[in-house]
Structure formats: C-alpha cells, structure tokens
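I am writing to request your help with a piece of structural work I have in hand. What I wish to show you is a protein chain and, alongside it, a tokenised description of its three-dimensional fold. Could you please explain, in whatever detail you think fit, how the structure tokens follow from the sequence? You will find the record immediately after this paragraph.
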Amino acid sequence: MDGFLIVDKPEGKSSAFVDFIVKKQFGAKKVGHIGTLDPFATGVLVIAVNSGTKAIHYIKTKSKTYEFEIIFGKRTDTSDKTGKVVETSERIPTDTEIKTVLPQFIGEISQVPSIFSAIKIDGKRAYELARKGEMPDMKSRKVTIYNLELIGKNTFRAEVSPGTYIRTLTEDIAKSLDTLAYTSSLRRTRDSKFSIEQSISLENLEKIMDNLDSVLIPLENVLDDIPVIPVSCQDAENLMLGRCVSTAFVGESGQYLTSAENGFLEIVEFSGGVVYPKKLLKSF
C-alpha cells in the first residue's frame, strides 16, 4: 500500500476530495497529491499513498500537458465556464488569426494567475478567498510554454512548466487577438512522467479494492531519475537508526536513493565514501 496512484479527476471535484476518497476506500494512513487541479478541470492527478507522501518532495516535475477549449467573445469573472459573463465582444478570430499569434507565447512568459486559481495565499486557496468576496493579491510569475498548438475548433494543446495557468493563457491569447475569451474545458493529459493512459476513474476505484497493486506505482519506479546506491541489510538498519555508513561505492557527491533486498528505501547524501541518512521512505 505504498506508492502512487494516477486518478482521472472528474469535473466539479476538488483535488482534496479525491485524496479523501482514496484514503477512505483503501484505508490508507496517509494520502496526498502532486499538482493541484482546479475543481472544474479534469485529468491526471497523481496521488501519493502512505510512504509515497514522503517522496513527494523528491519528485521532479519538468512539464505538464493540457488540452483545453476556448470560447471567444465573452469573459467571465472566473475566467472559466463556472463564472458569470461580465463582458462581451463581437470579434471572433479565425483559425488563421489564432495560429498567427500562438508563436508569441512559446518560451518564457510572465503570467498573473487568476484569483479563482488553486494557488495558495496565506494557507488558503485563492478561489476560496475570491468566492468569499475577498481579492487576493496575485503576483506575476515567470512560466515557460514549451509547445502550444491549435488541434481543433477553438481547442488547444499546451506543454507547459509547473505553475502555468491555462485560464490566464486563454485570456492573454484573446487579448493578443483584440477580443475576449474564457476557458470552457480543461483536461490535464500528462504530469511529468504520468499520463492519462495510466489513470483510473473514481468510479472504477471501488472495483479494484482487493487488487490495488495492479494500479499502484512503486516508489522506486517513480524515483527512477535519482541514482541508486545499493546497501546491505545491515547498513540499511544503521541508516534507519540515523547512522552514517561507509561504502565502497565510487561516484560524485550528492543526493542518492539507497535500497536493500529487504525492501528498505531511503534518500541519502553521499560524500567521500560515506552515506548520510536524509529521508527514510520505506523501512522493513
């Protein structure tokens, strides 16, 4: 019961709600997620189960891929379909016009997230504050758009860096076309190494209650981009007790993953032939 579960988050549910369902159905002690999705968004939500929660900090998220639809000619107060239309425009751009402006958004750009985003402000989600009538201070941030293309009628696919807000991108695209727009649908199809093809719906979770291993991704598979130092079971026991151990391993100083045949797994620091314990992920 230690690892990661890829859930296809349904529309209208918060990421925290998905955590609750997974924890309840499988009796997990700890559950957490990587990369919060706004309630109206769907798609890949990476859920850490039990010891998996200890590994969240060490997972390197390089990029995410989204597919989204835009409605041109209208702006809502939430920048998506859940809000009220507050402004309209008669200008509806053609596909040719849209394709012409997309290249200007490729690369590093500045964004100001929507006040209805899931970003945390003083421990609270921005959308929670906004729905109470508060106006959270949303600061500009640098993000990177690796790829952006029109894949259908007003439908786009974007590969972006973590922290990119698609609803803000939608409004910026509209502004460059001298019109208005809001995001009518948003689906995350990939989050770093995790894809929608690996996901399971909440409806199907109940069907695999007795066979969670069939969909649970082991910690070592998720952390496969961290170099490994194998250790003996005796060394694993010492590391578990917070003791450093000597090793014949030869390599550069830095962060490593140690593993032993008894299932032990820990994040360590290696320097000068010595392994220093840092974060115990899985004991035996």
